[in-house]
Specification:
Order of helices and strands: HHEHHEHEHEHEHHHHHHHHH
Oligomer: single chain
CATH architecture of the largest domain: 3-Layer(aba) Sandwich
Radius of gyration: 25 Å
Helix content: 55-70%
Shape: elongated
CATH topology of the largest domain: Rossmann fold
CATH superfamily of the largest domain: P-loop containing nucleotide triphosphate hydrolases
Number of helices: 16
Amino acid sequence: MKTWSEFEAVQPIVSQMLKNSIKKGRISHAYLFQGPKGTGKKEAGLLLAKSYFCQYKEDYKPCDECRDCRRIDSGNHPDVHMIVPDGQSIKKEQIAHLQKEFTYTGLESNQKVYILQSADTMTTNAANQLLKFLEEPKRSTLAILLTENGQSILNTIRSRCQIMSFKSLNTDQLEKQLAASGMSESFRKLTASLTNDLEEAQMMAEDDWFAKGRSIVIKLIKVLLEEKDEAFLFLHQQWLPHFQDKEQNQLGLDLLLIWYRDFVSYTIEREEAIIYTDEKKKFENFSFSLSRHQATQALKQISEAKNKLKANVNPALVMEELVLQLQR
């Protein structure tokens, strides 16, 4: 998400508010961008920084070609400072160092921007240090705080920021973003059904472990329907070595759940709802050995298995019981 058009497509309300501020020359001295992971907060901060620095912007849009724009894109602009947690938190020393940097004149202009990632991780001392900074704002300084947990930010800091609430991407928006990155239809539908986080979806699609996990899930279904005697062997030789802990087993069960849900969608002729688009031929083949009622029961059994994992039941025992149920 590197342009205002892309930003507007996924966060129309925040985009409009920021554009109006830029056009009217009323950019706030401090913003708090709050919202779930993967909703474009950091990208929006960098986009705002470009519009703030670009000398050739049209209306509110930066040119994307000048020296300032290119250096912000590359992370090398001398007057744009990105603050990230040092370990688990942002510390007082980091804010103090930032304040010291800002006492100097800008290297190329009087404008300076600082972006605090995971602002909710600031220690109490760091938050108090930042508060002093915000209480005496300079006209040429722009602060952008990013957080997934806005309520964890001190009220005294929140009151000095213009708050922008970022909404979770809906499935259609996420799929469009993933399609623009060149992801195949089957993978973008699958990842978008598992997360509304663009970055996480892209990481899944590029992860060999995830691709292998998807393959193991599909193989398990084939074994359950065509080679039932091999199901326990497959479980212990392939499933459990791959999905090794509770979290991984939850993901495996999510993939299994989606397959059975797709099969039900196929049987009631709702093909537009199918996530595993490359499995349609198999749905047709398996319709002779798997009924809609059995698939619906499987959905219930898989959901129960997920609940048992949440209750800390041993993953191997959960999966063994589930395989027995799905074989019937």
